[in-house]
């Protein structure tokens, strides 16, 4: 599984889990909260309705109910509104009483009816008299209660026979009670109307009219005459006492602002903590390779070049770890090469300088005479140091891309002929012949001087290793789209383990060779760098005991120089065969 997929899977799992659990909990808890809030609202409305109804029963009027509603509003923190049942007349609105803005309220209302329900005995035969008596008694008690209320008293209703209220007045003065009892009786015409309405209930059921109406009453479907009679009498009772009794109202109570989010937040916290902890553990598992890379990179930057990262899996992070390890290997190898190069340079320069110093001290002490032999030796040591320094400068410029190249079309055959002519005297001195075998019209786009330097270094190396009486061959041939230059000797060859090291700085196959016979150890390195700057490749084929062939392959015809390397106008380095 790739790192991208692992991260995507981690994020997807966390997001889906968090979203699913949060949605489920939110919906469930919100539904429970709404249900609980609605239940609490209904219970509160029922309690408020009971308190308001009790006030109407005790006082026989809605006068002063505003104070009761205001007290309930202060106690509950809710807005209270009382309207008539048809909503046409507003009785009390605590928002108006408190001077608060009047806004629309919920349509949920609760009925309030302070009127008693007439409780008639079963088949007593006295229904007419009981109903008429109950109507008049209720009127008188209600008028009495209303009078006491207006006088500042606090009457209380006690339910008595037939469900009628009896007004008590323990704290009322006798004169107030007597005054309020006066004039509570109904007018004769009202009593006559009561008798008429009650009498209609005893007519034939099919011909009944609603009490208090002039038209036929809605026909009922009751088949029990006694039950029908009781129902009709109760309706007449409510109609007739409504003239003086408290009017039925409807109650509206403002809902609680919002719902309690504490359970939701608590549940969210309970769910969020495991999700966060799980995400942390998963992220640590996913990001652990990145942390290892970060630590390794920091230590590597602090100088610990041996720092490596363990490779696990095959995803992008594992590939990054492999790349980092490869980079670390290259940098460590380059660091080691740099140290070896500095040590090699010091070693290569120490001996010539020591020789020159010894000659000069001996000359100063008079141990040797300043003759031609001494000056020749000093000159040879100085030239050896100069060659090493010039080769180092050439190699440094080439590796830095600052070595200048004057490119043109070069005939490889002519270049090999010139190399043979230049190196023939040195080869003849060690009884080695130079031969050229080049095909016609082998052209490359190169710097003739630098290419001659590279081939010359190969020729010098071949002559150095060729046995006396053998021939070093300089050949050129076409191989595909390249021109290949070959320099072949019949020497002892190079062991396979050493072949990969022949192009390293200051490396010599024969450890016993001296600087006089072995060169500076930089010739093959310079030849490789010049070849690379020309867009070519250099290699070798060697068989121990049979000789070695070095090969330089260059593109045919004109080539474009590598970007940033081998540009004309750079520093000119001296040409030396090493």
UniProtKB/TrEMBL annotation:
SUPFAM superfamilies listed in its UniProt record: ATPase domain of HSP90 chaperone/DNA topoisomerase II/histidine kinase, HAMP domain-like, Homodimeric domain of signal transducing histidine kinase
Keyword Cell inner membrane attached: no
Residue ranges occupied by any Histidine kinase domain in the UniProt entry: 344-558
This enzyme's EC code(s): 2.7.13.3
Annotated catalysed reactions: ATP + protein L-histidine = ADP + protein N-phospho-L-histidine
Domain of life: Bacteria
Keyword terms: Kinase, Membrane, Phosphoprotein, Transferase, Transmembrane, Transmembrane helix, Two-component regulatory system
UniProt main location, coarse: membrane
Domain HAMP: 284-336
GO cellular component term, pick one: plasma membrane
UniProt-recorded Gene Ontology molecular function terms: phosphorelay sensor kinase activity
Subcellular location(s) per record: Cell membrane
Name of this chain's protein: histidine kinase
Organism taxonomic ancestry: Bacteria, Bacillati, Actinomycetota, Actinomycetes, Micromonosporales
